[in-house]
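Entry 14. Structure prediction run on the chain below.
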Amino acid sequence: MVDLCLRWAVNCAGWTPTRMEWPRAMASIQLEEAERIRGFMFSRDAKLALVRCCHTHTISLTAILRQTVSRLNALPAGTSIHFNISHHGKYVVLATESTPVGVDVMELVRPRAKSAPEFFHTMRRQFTEGEWHAIRAPCTEEGQLAQFYRHWCLKESYIKADGTGLSYGLEKLHFEIDPTWPPSIGKVITGSQLFINSVHAAEWQFEESLIDSEHCVAVTTHHSTQRSHQVVFVERTVPQILLPLCPLRDPQEWEWDRFSTQLDNALRNLI
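Output returned:
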């Protein structure tokens, strides 16, 4: 069996679009997606959303996969490639498998205008009593927030892999987390286990890692995809993602002018 597993992380914060790149990318996504991106106030949000849309477009055509992984060219006709995408902070992340897969990434940042206890209070119904005990176990607010985002990534990645969406009551999901957190950057831990209404969901497995010191990511895969080696996230550049795109319409110069009016990240914290 061909291993269809990929883990990619794209740092959008480090990308400065050119006058040619931005209009071409905007012309490569659906009109309603482009209109939504034009409505963002901040350039970082616009870049994240655009790269996510482009990721989805290229993966649906499998063009970028076949350019990168030569073994995919030998796949039998009709072979399914499952993929999932998430974005937060600086990164857009992608996970692919031959079976259902879910991925979620979170930036380890303090919520705006709220202390950790205030933030936890607003989210109190999303986690079990045991999970809250694990989240609050660290001595510092930074450690507690890291545990919160870690739990959130696990739950989000699971419901995306299972296809249930946010309609699923998160409080019904209980994670017994791998105690070896935090992993070294470039390492993956797989010891966390899920219980749904107190029943062990042994058919699912969970990969947790740090892309960098500020971003945690979780991937949920079906037990049938279990492998003996670790699969770590590989950084890709935005130009690598944009290269295989085929514009759906003629690129428009005014798209660049519109993007140039969106506020820079430096102003983000002043508003």
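The beta strands are 6-11, 82-88, 91-97, 101-107, 173-176, 193-196, 199-200, 204-212, 215-222, 234-236.
Filed with the rest of this week's runs.
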